[in-house]
Amino acid sequence: MTTTTTTEIPLNKLIPFAGNVRKTHNKAFIAELAASIRAHGLQQNLIVKKNGGKYAVVAGGQRLKALLQLAKEGDIKLTYRVPCKIASESMDAEELSLVENVMRDDMHPADQFEAFRDLVDKGLSIADIAARFGTTETHVRQLLKLARVSPVILKAYREGALTLEQVKAFAVSDDHAAQEQLLASFGPHGRDPRSIRAVLTQHDVCATDRRVKFVGLKAYEKAGGATRADLFTEGAASIFITNSALLDKLAAEKLDRIAKLLARQGWNWTAARLEFGHQEQGDYRRIHPTMRLPAKLAKEADKLNAEYEKLVGEWEEAGDEAECPERLAEIRDRLDQISDSREEEWTPEQLAIAGAVVTIGFDGKADITGGLVRPEDMPKKAKGKPAAGSGEQEGAAAQAPGISAALLENLTAQKSAALAATLAEQPTVALAAVVHAFASRIFLNGHHEDRVLQLAAFPQSLHRVEGSKAAAQMDASREKWRKAIPASAEALWAWCLKQKQSVLLELLAFCAAASVNAVQTGRDNQSDRLQQAAQLAAALKLDMRQWFVPDAGNFFSRVSKPQILEALKEGRNQPPAPAWEKLKKPELAALAERELARSGWLPEVLRTAA
Questions:
Q1: Has domain 4-102 been given CATH number 2.102.10.10?
Q2: Which residues contact 155 (CB under 8 A, 6 or more apart)?
Q3: What does the pLDDT look like over 519-540, one tens digit per residue?
Q4: 451 touches 529 (CB < 8 A)
Q5: What pTM, to 2 d.p., does this model score?
Q6: What span, in angstroms and rounded, lies between the C-alpha atoms of 536 and 525?
Q7: What's the mean per-residue pLDDT of the chain?
Q8: What is the pLDDT of residue 35?
Q9: Where are the beta strands (DSSP E) in 17-65?
């Protein structure tokens, strides 16, 4: 064994050893080490070798850096005498450096947790501990939290059965019995930290809860509510409410205040509900507001409609060879723009029979559901007429509840395209539809503008459903006939006279299909056209499942979270998983797309009777 001599050497006589095997230094660790030396003194000698008039530190280079940092900060002088061991000349300096850095066994983290806990139990404050060990108070609190998990958990950690991240997850709860029960139930799965946290906090109220968002964390605390924190999670997800009864009380009081404000709008009744699920909503009939145009736009729409009627009449009188006026398309486009400017309005008749419920939405904001009619308040419905103030439409014209006018138009455009593609394949039904349209016009004074077949030769655009299966099939059929028929009207007449009846029926079917308009816009109200569309769909045995599959883009991202959850419930024939309610809307929409992809589920407005 090689001996060394112990002595004290002034700090300014010590220099780093050029051959030290440790090339990388952790500045944060040096700062912690400096704080420890400041508080506790140097607990381990340096090992040095003579180097001219100075001494090179061959073992203890990080301690030297910490001492120099203390001298720079004025805590010690450069003449501070450092306890050192002088290695004999026969010892290899680089080997000593390697031994110093390799031959060590670091303390197990669990031992460190408990050591910090013991310091606190002896009366040392968290601030003092942080200062003495050169760390933050938050870090000390985290170590203390880990030290106070169940001894069973710490034992499993020491034995390698748990990782540090898993122990941090167990620390979310102070209930040792619950921690131990969960550990005992561990199978091959469910051991990830996220699952551990989820199980131990399943009955807790997190600050991400919609009630907390609605009330406000500050308002809850101001009312005397206490919280606890998960020191290993950031943001609102790290805070838990300990007084759920107080939270519910505050939420109910805020909802009551909003309900009183709603009552001033003239509703027959108003109510506040902490929960207002689909089952409760089913106790009421639902009516919808009317869509009103500002007076200026309404006047413009009336003027455009009058111009449209006039142009159509002049075009019809001009004969079959007259070209369709370009102005008609311009008027239709402008009327569509005006329709998009409509605003919802509850009529006095509707307010007189309906109520409104305010509850808390998934986003933590007040969610108001208006137009709820109790069974006893629903007016009696006269035969063949909608109930007064109901705001509902007959048959296929009824608007699906809870979806926007734009989404309604998009969905029914899908249905219209599917009707067209199906009708083009069934000449017999197409012939009946065309004859019905003409006979209604000639014998019953029907208005052709409000027919499902626009037989004034208005080919209907499929731009709303471009890329869909139905649009692709119609495009393919159109291209087939374009190649088959002559390019001029005169030649087409001669061609038609030569064709077999079966060919003409097929062409008639396509032309009828190209004129189908079953799109429901916001201005449709008790429309004959939509009722005829329903009849046509029934005759064709239209099954929209063959033409449309709802996904995040075309449906789920465009409706509310409760509607997505209801769709999951219907499509899967079982309640949604509780965890799904906590998902953000884009995540829930993507999940619904996956879960319902092969279920055949359709939005209500597309559920066509076969």
A1: no
A2: none
A3: 887 655 556 788 888 888 888 8
A4: yes
A5: 0.45
A6: 19
A7: 80
A8: 83
A9: 46-51, 54-59
